[in-house]
Protein 1
Amino acid sequence: MKPFHEYLPVYYRHTRTKGTITGRTKSHPDFSKQHHRWYKNGTKIVPDDVVLTPITVMAWFLGDGMYRKHRRRNPIVRFSTQSFSISELNDILIPRLEEHDLNFTITQRNELICGTGVVDRFFDFIGKKSPIGCYNYKFPFGSTEIDPVRPSAKTKYDYDLIVRLYLEGAILNDITQKIGCHVDTIYNALAKRNIALRTAV
């Protein structure tokens, strides 16, 4: 399979909302194979042969996971697993996680969650830094734990630098890595200056 190239998202402006951003990759037989593996008769499932490694759990966490620390509560890690059955969680995912000393329980909303005693082990397992800059906000380690979509007043980003890098041809991930911001910050910087996102070729 050939290496991925970043796909520049397309922005669709709506009259009643802020709009949506969408993107897609080219089709590939490997994608079709994985689709048939994870979707049986149109229903999302957990394959019996799923293997949980630091890399696969990292990818899972970036997509469906979250880290949360409230001021008066202990930190947690949560996975959005509402589309899976209770038996798939109990019989496949939880035992596979426990093989790595990661003890998760099921919430009333059918999510997987772990508490304080496991959070540190979880990040020791997957790594303490995101491999993709725009997901840094999901990790408790680093410069900030501030919500990337609604940063606090203490967070000041150089919009001029963001715009200049973008206009010079920098890709989104490179900008997030250099600035240390979420990708939404880039969209906000461009929108404030009425600069349209590059369209995919």
Note: Residues 86-98 form the longest helix (13 residues).
Protein 2
Amino acid sequence: MTAPRFQGDPPTHFLSPLLDDAGVPHLFTTRSFPGVTAFRDPFPPLGPTAQPLLAEHGLGAEPAAFLKQVHGAQVLRATGGGCAGKADVLMTDRPGLPIAVFSADCVPLLIYDPDGRRLAVVHAGWRGTAQSAARAAVLALVEAGGRPEGFLRGGQAGDRAARRSLSGAVGRLGQVGRCGQMDAGPLGGQRRSAAKRGNPQRQG
């Protein structure tokens, strides 16, 4: 298992080395990340105080797409910011659009298809795991044309002591230029080539 890259003191978030090395703008929040709240329609779960850290990682240029999570395995596709509906897996192929899931003692996952340029986020609690939420995300990426042997994933273990302090995962697809380089957003500079892959059995 590849060790996560924690940032902040106390740690507010961390990065998956596999996703970071592939040039995917993303972060996994901890209970110390500012501005994360429980979803209450019509208010988004990422408040104004979250924006500086999101922008630092190329995730603040536009509002994130998120879900009203229901502890299941349904997959929805995001094409714009805001609440995409009731589900626990959100997928996008739109560069620049952040997508997000949130959890207390559940597991947030990010799965990236570097060939098809698609990204999925998963909210996987015990009920979602029993219904194979992560598998549903992989199958949705495969049905869209992806090759699972090339997928990269990052995840965060649940924290039962933090049931009332939400954590989560936020990621987006970067823009690809003529040289195949993926950007990390307006404040993130250039990342490494998106063609670099890891073993899909590893996670970070």
Note: The helical segments are 17-21, 51-56, 126-130, 133-143.
Protein 3
Amino acid sequence: MLLVDVKASCGISGKKAQRLLDEINITANKNAIPFDTEKPFKASGIRIGTPAMTTKGFKEEDFEEVARIVRKLNETKNVHQHLDLIAGLPFEDYESFGKSFDDVYALQPEQLQLGFLKVLKGSHMEKAKEEYGLVYKNEPPYEVLYTKWLPYADVLKLKGIEEMVEVYYNSGQFQYTLKALEKEFSSAFQMYESLAVFYEQHKFHQMSHSRVTRYEILLDFVKQVCPDQEDFYKELLTFDLYLRENAKTRPDFAGESLVTKEWLQEFYDREAKEPVCLRGYTGYDKRQMRKMTHVEKFTRASENICGKEEPVYILFDYQDRNPLDHQATCYFLQNDGKEYKMANK
């Protein structure tokens, strides 16, 4: 698969590039690029790859081998993986698609793209459209509307799930919250399905939302699903937010900081004089250090964040980010100045 930054090379969005290519029967899909500044449904890139593996005659053991390779690549921690899942294929209904979703989701790729079958002129799918009961749009991108196995109502449900995966999973901004929230459901597919219904009920999909508002909406969803866990999820959302954002305006859901002014002053005074965590800040004074970092104390979600049951202080270093996902490097802090580097995955 090839990921192309069309905003930088052509000055257009991934969405527009997809539409233009569809008009000349070239299959491509809009796709976010690393550090994308566009919204998920516009994106700055497109992805171009081979047709779905099922159309290539893959058998179950072939999929297992692909899964093994994906897991192996994940272990390297330096490969940004994008996996596609296509709805509307022959013999697949809503339930079997959900099972496929959970299988692919379990591989934890950086991007999981939900797409819908495109019935291109002259393709095998067009020739077999009557056999498969394929009904599709009569203009580009010739996307499937329903099949013998997948009614139109289910396609619409999958469209809602696609949006939730784009906003919450593919953005990479809610990793720790989603990982915990999955356990409240029988499957990841059911979680995104329920979230899509929640959006529909509140007509959130009809509005444009800021990044912080997406966190607030997810918290409202949590209150509906597991109201007794609200404070726990507030901490996870706070951690996810600061992992990517050097937010100087504290969001309401984060509540009052548990880190005292005295603790912060002592920490940055020590780092300015004899750095332990911020060794890369030579020449910076403590005021500058505070601007480029953030410290947060966690008491309820510390085990989910770093595997420690006791309360922890975490330092977010925004000068030292993961080049693949743009997450800040994190350190566990102790009052005696000892530190432990935290893995971002």
Note: The two ends are 24 Å apart (CA to CA).
